[in-house]
Amino acid sequence: QVQLVESGGGLVQAGDSLRLSCAASGRRFSNYAMGWFRQAPGKEREFVALISSSGGRSYYTDSVKGRFTISRDNAKNTLALQMNSLKPEDTAVYYCAADGHYSFTSRIDSYDYWGQGTQVTVSS
Fold first, then answer.
1. Spans of the chain, pLDDT less than 70
2. Which of 26, 63, 94, 110 could form a disulfide with 2 if both were Cys (CB 3.0 to 4.6 A apart)?
3. How far apart are CA 106 and CA 29, in angstroms?
């Protein structure tokens, strides 16, 4: 079992940067691949980025490649998403999630533990 709490969201202008954080509780954090997902109003939740349990591998959806960077610090039980060059279409609630299946996948149904989300709003 792991509990996740996101923070760092806010209101910014296009081109600005934000850094999201996810604090995890639980002794098995380092065993899980971790992902960031987002959901805009009226839309389905979508994959953004993921990172392997060790932090050695990462993967991003095409729309954020080159702009977003996912990272983790297993010693501190934290996950982060550095978001640069933000665009209005990045506006969404961002969620961190843990893959309880110990896999490396962008499939949303593979993630068992979710935070409550943090709002990111990018104005044009």
1. none
2. 26
3. 18
3-state secondary structure 39-87: ECCCCCCEEEEEECCCCCCEEECHHHCCCEEEEEECCCCEEEEEECCCC
Residues with Cβ within 8 Å of 1's Cβ and at least 6 positions away in sequence, in order, are 26, 28, 113
State both tokens at 39: 């959901």
Q: Who contacts 8 (Cβ-Cβ below 8 Å, separation ≥6)?
A: 18, 19, 20, 21, 118
- Residue tagged 């296009």 (tokens): 14
Would you state the pLDDT for residue 76?
A: 95
38-66 tens-digit pLDDT:
999 999 999 999 999 999 999 999 999 99
